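Need tokens for this chain, all 213 residues.
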Amino acid sequence: MIHNRDSARKVADFLLQIKAVMLQPDKPFTWASGIKSPIYCDNRKTLSNPKIRTYLRQQFVAAITEQFGKQDVIAGVATGGIPHGVLVAQDLGLPFVYVRSEAKKHGAGNLIEGEITAGQSVVVVEDLISTGGSTIKAVEALRKEKCTVKGVASIFSYNLKVSEENFKKAKLTCVSLCDFPTLIVRAVENNYIVEKDLKTLEDWMKNPEGWKK
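Here are the structure tokens for all 213 residues:
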């Protein structure tokens, strides 16, 4: 779900402004899930812009507070969710941990970095939601430590049906600052994409798993 429609449009404008959104219909991007996509949203670029970075932090804090209330810990998903999660935790005055994609193969072999204890409530911060697979994997790691995961907050969501189904199965609520439909509307209004690209994106959205196969 989107936290705030007006804010979502502003986030979309920011992403377009810093060219975080890339279109490559003829050379599609391949996600970790194997899905081919004509579009990629590189939210890491927001970290290089203090104004945008600050706005995202403020919107994250508002969304998390309104949607999930109080929590004990903020957790970031490696790697994109780490920097934004730290900023949010700092603003809320909360401890921060992050969850690796897999346990370290050396040292202490940690999967979760930072201090967390059973019974603590956690909100997970992500930069982007595609299928939801990596996010749910991180949530499962936190639940294995007997933490209560109150939900997930992300900068951007593709709003794919598969992610909706995955979050439902995992009994997770996800709130996003911006989503695919909002981004595309603003991209058209700002002449960022042409009619041909819009048709490609609409076709992809209808069947991302089968597109380009």
